[in-house]
Each structure stands twice: as structure tokens, then as C-alpha cells.
AP3A hydrolase (Amphiprion ocellaris), 492 residues
Amino acid sequence: MLGLSLLGGCSPLLFLLVLLLPLVSLHRLNHQERSEPSVTDRPKLLLVSFDGFRWDYIDRVPTPNFRSIMDEGVLVEYVENAYITKTFPNHYSLVTGLYAETHGIVANEMYDPALNMSFSMETDSIYDSRWWEEAVPLWVTVQKAGGRSGAAMWPGSDVKIHGLFPNQYLQYNASVSFETRVEWIIEWFSAPKEEAVDFGVLYWEEPDESGHNLGPQSSLMDVVIAGIDEKLGFLLNELKKAGLYEKVNLIVTSDHGMAQLSADNIIELDEYVSRDMYTWVDKSPVVGILPKEGKFDEVYNSLLDANPNMAVYKKDDIPEHFHYRHNIRIMPILLEAKEGWTIMQNRTGHFMLGNHGYDNTLRSMQPVFVARGPAFRQNYVKTSMRSVDLYPLMCHILSIRPLPNNGSLLNVQDLLSSLPDSPTPIPNHPPPTPPKASGYSYAPVVGSFLGVVMVLGFLVVYVILVTLKQRPSLKHRSWEMSQPLLQEDLHL
Ligand SMILES: [Zn+2]
């Protein structure tokens, strides 16, 4: 009765307001949920990679700066990285959350039969976007979501990928010191509001280079590791000086570990198969073999069981858990040396005392992982994670919707100071494809349309009521259709 008495006099306007209020609030809520945090409030994240920093190096010599991050943050003891455990594939996995077969950077040296092109980290071929565009690195996603990114020499970060470079980046140049790279990173994070980066990546070539040359067991590596800890100390200090230390979430990790080699453990391919029958694309310890036309069977049969320290796989037989089959850039035959063994054509080739690339479940292949900052728990040790899980974790920290990936936030959310309140994707099931870069949504349009329809509907009903009141004869004609309303109306 109350509602209908409102309908009676001059209350239609009030009713209209009551009707529209939820719609207006709904629209406002919707807008609030989708709007980005203000520039100054946006979470900050810096991802640092010390190439070839094996997980156990931190225990080998005093590493007070790694320790301070662990005390104030988190340590993950066992990080299973991506196969093959090489630099380019793993750095791209860290920023895409994808295994190499999916992101397409399957090795440091590649051949793409469709493009008929070769990729080598020693040449400018790496600047061809086509190698990188099977995936989207996080800095591109950050920028498409309205954030800003800065990159200091991270592999691939000086390549235009899906039309974008990082907002700030350095052209790769190995002779630029770590300290200079840090200074650039600090400057980018400290820039005025609108220009400050939200996501930064920083790469340093050591201790990989020394690990290759000296071998990880060399006592000379102690000095190298202590030197890396000092470099980390420099970074922490610069963050403090710039007032960024408490604001920026810092993740320090690596692409892979390092195994000790021996000149006694060399497999010489020339002993088993003629060089004329194949091209070797990627090199030891995991070798991509491209047999010459019509020579597949001969090459495969010659190598199979040739040496007990070398596994030989047809592409389709590469073990499932490596996630290393489904890409045209993976060669038809893959040779994998046992840990500590080197595959060469003969002994005249370049021999190293340390190497990586082996099976990613080997402890020696695994990287360090420590992190601190407002998003992370304090003094927390986690047993294990996969390096592909880092991507959804970083997206969560940055409040960015992840693209489909092989990782899972569920696996690593215990590293966070507060648990995510949104539903977490089921492990190994990629989340749905995110909205287009513009963030355009149909919700407001549909909401507005429904609002208009409801208002019009109300007006039509109101007009009918008023008309019926004024013209009683109509009551009878439309009796059945309007019965409930009219019955009430008659009692007014
Ligand atoms: Zn290396």
C-alpha cells in the first residue's frame, strides 16, 4: 500500500530516484573496482637477476646482504627453473611465467625453420622482434595496463616486443658497470609521480662468467660470490638513500646454477656421426641436432646408445616434465649430457670448467631466490617453488591481471604478507584471457541500457495509471492485464 500510495500523488519523481539509486551506486562501485590506484599509491617492484647465482652460494661465504633480505623477507630453498637451464630461456620464463616451448626462446642459439632464421646471443639477431613475440613480457603488460617500467640490460628488454620497449631501458652493453645500472634504476623509480616506473628489471652477468671460467668448485669463486653480495649491498644502500627501500618490493634471483665440469668427461660427436649429416644448433650440455635432408634415421641411430653419459631424444620423446617439445624451434633430435659432462664435436672446441643447461631438476642447476618489501612476509623460509610461479606472484604484487601462464599464485601466495582476497587460479590452468589493452568493459553500457529500459518502463506504467485514473472507461478494457495494480488503485 505504501508503494502504491507513493505512486499516487507527486511521488513518481521520488520513486524514480529510489529506482535509479542502486544503479548509480552499482556503476560507481564498478568504476572504483576497475580504476587504477593513483600514481603514488601504485605498488613498486624490482626484479634483479645475478646470472648463474646458484642457490647454495649464499651459504658458501658470508653474504650479509643476502642475509638481511632473508631476515626481513623470504627465502625459497628450492626453485625449479625452466628447461633448458640456459640464460635466455630462463630470463624470459621469469617475466612471462611460461615454459620455453611456449614463450619461444627455447635456447641461447636457435634456428626457426618457418622463418628460416637463426638466433644467437652473440649477434644482432636477438633484436628481431619475431623471436620474442610468442609471449608478452611483464614490462609490456604493465605498460598496457597504464603502468610504467624500466629495464637495465635484462635479456630481451632492449627489443621491441608487441610494439613496445620498456618506458625506460638501457641498450645492452656488457661494459656498463653494475653500479651504473643501479643508478639508472634508482633514477627511474625516483622520477616525478607520472614518470616513475612501477616495475623494474636489473640484470648482472656475474657470477655466471666466473662460474664458466673457474668452475663452481674453485675456491676463487668465493671472492666472486662475496663480490656479488657487495653489489647487492650497493643496491640496498642506494634504495635506502633514495627513500625507496620501504616502498619497493625487491626480488633477487637468478636464471640458473652452475655445474663443475672436467676435461675427462667429454663426449666427442665426431666419434659417432659425420658432421656432414647434421647441423648442431644449440650447444652443450643440451645439443639441438638438425639432421640434413633424409639423414634423420642415420643420425639418430648413430647417436642412440653411442655414449652412456648422453641421452638421445627424438623431439616427440623428450620427457613430458621438461615441457620442451611443442615448438618448431626445438630441433628434431636433442642430446642431453649427464651432469658434469660436455658434448663437443672434438676436443679442439672451447672447453669450460663450469656450465649449465642440464636437467632442471638437478640441484646444481637451480638459482637463488630471496625477496623483501611491503608485499612479502618477514623471516619466512619456503621449501620450494617453480620459477614460472614468479610471474603470477609479480602480477599480484603489481595489481595486474596476468596473461595465461604456466605458473600458479596458489603455489607461492604464502610468501605474501597478506593473502590474496580474489579467487586464485587453479594450478596449471591458465586464467582466462585478460581484457584488451584499453581495459574496455561492456558492463557500464549494459548497466546504462538496463537503467534506461527500467526508467522507460516505469514511465509507461505511470502514464497508463494516470491515464486510467483520468479515463475510468479504460479500466474495464484493460482489466485483465492491469488487474492487480488497478485493484489497489481503486482503494486509493
Ligand atoms: Zn652461462
